[in-house]
Amino acid sequence: MATSTVEQYIKTIYQEEERTRTPLVQMKRLSRAMEVTPGTATSMVKHLADNALVQYTPRKGVTLTSRGRKLALGMIRRHRLIETFLEQVLEYDWSDVHDDAERLEHAVSDTFVERLDKYLGFPDRDPHGDPIPSAELVMGKSGSIPLRECTVGRSFSVARVKNAGRDRLAFMKEHRVVPGEQFVLDQKNETAGTMTLRHHDSGESLTIGFDLGSSISVVASEEK
User: Fold this and answer.
1) For 21-109, where are the alpha helices, taking DSSP H only?
2) If you ran DSSP here, which 8-state letter would residue 124 be given?
3) Which H or E run includes 11?
């Protein structure tokens, strides 16, 4: 059985692959994400390679093997199901679910996870709109694009909001920037690095920076 440290490294490598859209994760990026020194990260990656969970190329980076990817998807499945349970059943705010899910995901059994999935009605999305891998460890496709890629004047539905920290998540919830809500992109100012969104129903306008906008993925309406 993998230790919690091994599980966390494997999950983080997967998440960095998703974030950079490349299968090769640089060691500097991994050590920063794990909040450890590059030397510590390299030592652990060599251990993971010895256990056939990753392939490590010195001075280039690390990528998951099929075995490592399976472990990563299992951890992500646990995490997102627990987040869903915390919000839907224990009435956590969506900005508070991440840290407790991080702790619990390493402690629960596979049987618990499958019963939790059934209890929740087999959800395919967590509170932030992230897809939940199936019991067969297949990750669903979101079909969404980064908000910044949306063109001015287009309507869109919020699909995913990445964990951008408690304060930012609370801010977005206050302004209804949550999965399922619909907006229009009224303005994009490349010089100022800002975007102005208008809520479809309330008409409320909200201007956010590209930095915050990078954590939002959307499904844009078809152009007429």
Assistant:
1) 27-34, 38-50, 66-88, 97-104
2) S
3) helix 4-20
Is 73 buried (19+), middle (13-18) or exposed (0-12) by CB count in 10 A?
buried
Question: What is the model's pTM?
Answer: 0.87
Last residue of a domain, one of 64, 87, 111: 64
What does the pLDDT look like over 18-30, one tens digit per residue?
888 888 999 999 9
CATH number for 166: 2.30.30.90
Distance of CA 9 to the CA centre of its chain: 15
Q: What is the pLDDT of residue 18?
A: 85
Average pLDDT over residues 191-208: 94
Residue with tokens 């990750």: 139
Distances (CA, A) of 219 to 174, 181, 210: 21, 11, 18
- E strand intervals along the chain: 54-57, 61-64, 145-146, 155-161, 182-189, 194-199, 205-209, 216-220
Residues 186-197, mean pLDDT to the nearest whole number? 95
131 within domain boundaries: no
Confidence of residue 224 (pLDDT cuts 50, 70, 90): low
